[in-house]
């Protein structure tokens, strides 16, 4: 166990409060089970999902400097559970810390805009951390394994990291952006078996979906097919946008590639919480498009509500 209780300024992001509310729900449930305190940043805004910078880098930096400053005001790390939010806000944090050292005029410009809106300035005194890094680096996998009451023995899990988690920042903690192992290490800690397959570090296709829908579905179908052919029981992702393309749109993906798939897709906190003995209905598993029943049958934990 950590030597002192873990506390984070919790940035839920847009998708987990809308299309993937089960992610918000399962993150809260998991945190309570692990004794992690989350202080939700209710005044935070959308990170922009990488689109703000297409119009203005200053816009992206100012919006997310404000998000980071909200966590700094609490003297806490900013915790994300979305690969895209992590990549965008984490990279802004990197860029502004570089500006502190090498381009203070730019940081003054950003903080001047925040000041005009009555917001706290960005100070560069905290860090932006995804839930995955918090589990691996702060809580610790040995401590996590000690909390497991329902080992996921026999469950074959394929990781799907998402682009932004691995390549959105110049540096990522605890892992290699080209050959990551953090999710696989979490799988081992909760008793599941990691499945290797092509595509686990590639794009799910979501960024293309608004203007090249068929290509987006083809990309998703390629990854889902590879995971199935490698013997996976489910896909596990730390990104709700990946979840939308791989789970919510899986029927459309099937139509695009002309093949039935039916591969369940879990959010990271859902998988870990199941191993901690938390019941499926508390994790929003019934909200998924692809049924989780095959996974839960393996764990003798059917959805009852």
UniProtKB/TrEMBL annotation:
GO molecular-function terms, A-Z: oxidoreductase activity
InterPro entries reported in the protein's UniProt record: Cys_rich_dom, HdrB/HdrD_reductase
Keywords (A to Z) from UniProt: Oxidoreductase
Top-level taxon in the UniProt lineage: Bacteria
Record-annotated Cysteine-rich domain positions: 8-89, 158-247
A Pfam match: CCG
Annotated protein name in UniProt: Heterodisulfide reductase
Organism: Prochlorothrix hollandica PCC 9006 = CALU 1027
């Amino acid at each position: 166990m950590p030597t002192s209780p873990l506390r984070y300024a919790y940035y839920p992001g847009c998708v987990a409060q809308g299309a993937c509310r089960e992610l918000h729900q399962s993150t809260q449930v998991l945190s309570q089970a692990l004794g992690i305190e989350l202080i939700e940043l209710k005044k935070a805004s959308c990170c922009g999902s990488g689109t703000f910078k297409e119009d203005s880098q200053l816009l992206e930096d100012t919006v997310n400097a404000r998000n980071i400053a909200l966590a700094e005001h609490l003297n806490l790390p900013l915790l994300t559970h979305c690969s895209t939010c992590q990549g965008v806000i984490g990279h802004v944090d990197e860029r502004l810390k570089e500006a502190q050292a090498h381009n203070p005029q730019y940081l003054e410009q950003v903080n001047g805009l925040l000041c005009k809106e009555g917001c706290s300035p960005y100070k560069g005194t905290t860090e932006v951390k995804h839930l995955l890094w918090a589990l691996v680096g702060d809580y610790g996998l040995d401590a996590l394994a000690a909390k497991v009451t329902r080992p996921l023995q026999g469950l074959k899990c394929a990781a799907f990291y998402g682009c932004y988690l691995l390549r959105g920042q110049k540096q990522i903690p605890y892992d290699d952006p080209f050959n990551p192992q953090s999710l696989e290490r979490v799988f081992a800690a909760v008793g599941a078996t990691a499945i290797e397959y092509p595509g686990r570090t590639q794009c799910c296709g979501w960024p293309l979906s608004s203007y090249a829908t068929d290509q987006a579905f083809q990309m998703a179908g390629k990854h889902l097919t590879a995971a199935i052919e490698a013997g996976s029981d489910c896909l596990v992702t730390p990104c709700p946008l990946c979840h939308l393309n791989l789970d919510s749109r899986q029927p459309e993906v099937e139509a695009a590639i002309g093949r039935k798939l039916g591969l369940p897709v879990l959010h990271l906190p859902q998988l870990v919480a199941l191993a901690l003995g938390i019941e499926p209905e508390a994790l929003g598993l019934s909200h998924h498009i692809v049924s989780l029943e095959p996974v839960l049958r393996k764990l003798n934990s059917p959805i009852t509500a």
